[in-house]
Design goal:
With 362 residues, the protein is α/β, with parallel strands linked by helices. The chain contains twelve helices and eight strands.
Length: 362
């Protein structure tokens, strides 16, 4: 059942570990203390949710009036370093940016590390509220310019950033890293097809699996009562196990149905990121890896560009970086199996693109 969950619950990013028991390789990009910049563990309040969130704020030394960014993680419960497959991409990003004169606040997701709350109960509105609480905290500090606060969102974090920027018009800029930009229903199907093709699965088998998913998704979206939909799907799949795609077992039907009829999953199916993007007026940098199989670059970058243009935003930079996967590592196939075995945590080319663009946007 774990393989099934990894396949379908990693809709906008992957779970914290793709595989267990893999030998940890070197992570040469991880910084070592002492850092050549100011670093402070901080805590701030989400007044709406009545929880405290904990993180790390890094600020350049001997510099005034610099930009500061809030890092927004993907769809799994991540700590402030967005640890995944033995990597700490947010630590590497924060270190690089701060060494180059850009402050960074990164924090543990609610219910993770030293942050309060329950991640599994957090909807998009809750995640948006957490980011807005981080921004509110930055605005209380006298050592930070309130005019230069931006957002960097990775994967689902790149969905949350436009939500915040569409609500708070004084956000200075946003950076979208492998951000989903097409409706959730289409995104899941595209992701499934793209990844299966990369694994060498035949077109015939992919077609069967996509038809299976569409059938379930249509029932879930149309349902006014998820409990009735759950019962209907369970009865149907139990009576006709031959309709299950290869690799899905009849004894797992209840767990499959439970996943697809969960309220949070219905929210994902219905959500259209383009609506928030149309209301973003600040400068936007959107980059994807050319080998990203989780958020396929062409469809999503095109959708970002289209939505921003529809809203009248011309301060947009769109880039596809060759040979990079969903984590922005230089990769061979882009499949998640590679994540932990690649020594590189985050491409220096991508880091340079982000840094140079933020500097130009000041």
């Amino acid at each position: 059942m774990k393989s099934f969950l990894v396949l379908f619950l990693s809709i906008f990013t992957l779970y914290s570990l793709v595989a267990q028991g893999i030998k940890v390789v070197q992570r040469p990009q991880e910084p070592k203390k002492p850092y050549p910049y100011f670093s402070e563990d901080v805590m701030f309040q989400n007044q709406e949710a009545k929880i405290s969130l904990s993180g790390t704020l890094t600020l350049p030394k001997n510099k005034n009036d610099f930009p500061v960014v809030v890092l927004i993680s993907g769809s799994s419960p991540y700590n402030r370093n967005e640890e995944i497959a033995g990597h700490k991409p947010f630590l590497v990003i924060a270190d690089h940016l701060t060494r180059n004169g850009i402050g960074v606040l990164r924090y543990d997701d609610r219910g993770v590390g030293q942050s309060e709350g329950k991640y599994e109960m957090a909807a998009y509105t809750d995640r948006t509220s957490d980011v807005e609480s981080a921004i509110a905290y930055l605005r209380t500090r006298k050592d930070i310019s309130k005019r230069k606060i931006g957002l960097i969102g990775h994967s689902e974090g790149g969905l949350i950033a436009p939500r915040v920027a569409s609500r708070q018009k004084d956000i200075s800029f946003i950076v979208l890293l492998a951000a989903p930009a097409i409706p959730g229903y289409d995104m899941i199907l595209l992701q499934t097809e793209t990844r299966n093709k990369a694994r060498g699965i035949s077109d015939a088998k992919i077609k069967v699996e996509l038809a299976f998913l569409k059938g379930i998704f249509d029932v879930v979206i149309a349902a006014s009562d998820l409990e009735k939909a759950k019962s209907h799907l369970a009865d149907s799949l139990t009576a006709h196990p031959e309709h299950l795609p290869e690799g899905m077992k009849a004894e797992n039907v209840d767990a499959i149905v439970e996943t697809f009829t969960a309220p949070w999953f219905q929210n994902i199916l219905r959500y259209n990121p383009g609506i928030s993007l149309e209301n973003v007026k600040c400068p936007v940098l959107a980059i994807n890896g050319g080998k990203d199989l989780q958020i396929p670059p062409k469809e999503n970058l095109d959708a970002i560009k289209k939505a921003l243009k529809k809203g009248g935003n011309e301060k947009v930079t769109i880039k596809k970086l060759p040979n990079l996967n969903h984590l922005f590592q230089e990769a061979e196939t882009g499949l998640p199996d590679e994540f932990s075995t690649i020594e590189q945590t985050f491409s220096p080319i991508a880091l340079k693109e982000i840094t140079n663009w933020i500097r130009k946007s000041e």
